[in-house]
Amino acid sequence: MPRPYIALAALLVFSLYTLATLLTAEQSLLAFGGELMSRPDTAQVVIDLYLMAALACVWMYRDGRGRGRSLASMMPYFLLTAVFVSVGPLLYIVINGFRDE
To answer: Measured between alpha carbons, how far is 67 from 63 in angstroms, rounded to an integer?
Structure first.
């Protein structure tokens, strides 16, 4: 199983950046999301991002089931993906690695 060093580095850097942003933001995460969805140009980017998040959840689900994991054990990854998008899949890769087919 290859070591997910790139995924770990991305997870750490992006999580720290996200934390710093949340601590210094002048509005809540929900207000920010609502503002992004209020314009067609930014809504398109958000919709595209969440389509990719949904695909990542499908991949995590199929990979997890292939490893014998229950749906309940996958829920933390899905919830992180729903809120922070890339954090869920990156954490999944860091914890579970890559499976050889």
So the answer is: 6
Distance CA 13, CA 94 (A): 13
Torsion, CA 23, CA 42, CA 13, CA 63, rounded to 10:
120
Would residue 3 be called left, alpha or beta, if left means φ above 0 and alpha means ψ between -120 and 50 degrees?
beta
Say what the pTM is.
0.86
Share of the chain above pLDDT 90, in %: 76
Structure tokens, 90: 């990156």
Q: Using CA atoms, how far apart are residues 37 and 19, in angstroms rounded to an integer?
A: 22
Q: How confident is the model at residue 41 (pLDDT cuts 50, 70, 90)?
A: very high
Other beta carbons within 10 angstroms of residue 52's beta carbon come to 14
**What are the distances in angstroms from CA 28 to CA 24, 57, 64, 87?**
10, 25, 32, 19
